[in-house]
Amino acid sequence: MAKPVTLTHSTAQQSAGPALWRQYYELTKPKVVMLLLLTALVGMCMATPNLVEARILIAGLFGIGLLASSAAVINHVVDRRIDSMMARTYNRPVAKGRIGITQALGFATVLGTLGYVCLSLWVNPLTALLTLGSLVGYAGIYTLFLKRATPQNIVIGGLAGAAPPLLGWTAVTGAVHPHALLLVLLVFTWTPPHFWALAIHRRREYANANIPMLPVTHGVAFTKTWVLGYTALLALVGFLPYLVGMSHLIYLLGSSVLNLMFIWYAWQLKFSNDERWAMKTFRFSIVHLMVLFVVLLIDHYLPVTL
Ligand code: HEM
Ligand SMILES: CC(C)=CCC/C(C)=C/CC/C(C)=C/COP(=O)(O)OP(=O)(O)O
């Protein structure tokens, strides 16, 4: 039976809350969106041997960022009930009632419309449509349906979060290229260990909110095995950009080190009894993806070969 979390702050502290603009800002999941935009930027740069045109760079990142932010705001509205049951999320603006549903949905509509118009007018219709598709994938399919339906929720839903390198690529070329899909595959394979490491740490909260995350439905040991499995798979996928000639030696070296480190974290998570490895692995996953995409970028502009 789902129970609301026990609140520990005084009522006065809760009702004060942060400044209004800060709460709207928080609704957009800014740190997640920043990392999504880094992957989109790398997708843009890798789509061309030349420098990316300033109009595409600015309007593209702006539009993708606005639509991703809009998706994040909708996620706060749809998830307000389950967010209020988990210690990690109970204090979120909509879950806490500091921002109303109408206001949040209005904010999401403004962000989404501006983002779509920006991409349609100054980038291209394909990028606008694919980005809108990612919004629907995350805010609609993942949040509204998959999250509550299956422990494979984040594997399938991960496609929306993995899309930005492709969105960046199509912004520059107007077409889908297999190399762009390879970048999507990297983020797609990275997502399960990223999220399941956190879900292991937060499994009791997910169970309390009746969300069928893998550690809740199949247990911690099973989830740890799959985290390790996906890091191994990611290491294999990580060779593909080099093998198909998209990337060169700097990437090969950098990605190998990062992927081996990720496997090491997952190994510790699986075989050490120290509970702290779950959050250590989650935090490392973010550094891993960030550095991996920076390495892709460096390698693109500095193509060292044997
Ligand atoms: C379905 C796919 C994904 C799921 C279910 C997921 C889940 C989560 C969750 C629950 C958190 C919150 C941790 C907390 O509040 O302490 C988080 C944090 C984060 N995620 Fe993901 N994530 C996904 C995909 C991605 C993608 C694709 C990116 C970027 C490319 C990303 C980047 C981040 C970052 C940067 C944080 C840290 C945010 C912060 O510290 O405020 N995530 N993720
Ligand atoms: C247009 C576009 C590129 C859209 C992508 C949108 C986006 C923000 C993807 C990131 C995925 C993410 C943060 C999932 C966590 O949701 P959760 O509900 O499981 O986590 P929570 O409990 O922290 O809310």
Automatic annotation (TrEMBL):
On whether Nuclease is a keyword of this UniProt record, the answer is no
One Pfam family name from the record?
A: UbiA
Q: What is its EC number?
A: 2.5.1.141
> Top enzyme class of this protein?
transferase
> What's the superkingdom here?
Bacteria
Query: Which BP terms from GO are recorded?
Result: heme O biosynthetic process
Q: How does it sit in the membrane?
A: Multi-pass membrane protein
Cellular component terms per the entry's GO annotation: plasma membrane
Instruction: Give the catalysed reaction(s), semicolon-separated.
Output: heme b + (2E,6E)-farnesyl diphosphate + H2O = Fe(II)-heme o + diphosphate
InterPro entries per the UniProt record, alphabetical: Protohaem_IX_farnesylTrfase (IPR006369), UbiA_prenyltransferase (IPR000537), UbiA_prenylTrfase_CS (IPR030470), UbiA_sf (IPR044878)
The annotated pathway is:
Porphyrin-containing compound metabolism; heme O biosynthesis; heme O from protoheme: step 1/1
A Gene Ontology MF term for this entry?
protoheme IX farnesyltransferase activity
Answer whether the UniProt record assigns the keyword Transferase to this protein.
yes
Biological function:
Converts heme B (protoheme IX) to heme O by substitution of the vinyl group on carbon 2 of heme B porphyrin ring with a hydroxyethyl farnesyl side group.
Misc. remarks from the entry: Carbon 2 of the heme B porphyrin ring is defined according to the Fischer nomenclature.
Similarity comment text for this entry: Belongs to the UbiA prenyltransferase family. Protoheme IX farnesyltransferase subfamily.
Can you name this protein?
Protoheme IX farnesyltransferase
**Naturally occurring in which organism (per UniProt):** Salinimonas sediminis
Gene expressing this chain:
cyoE
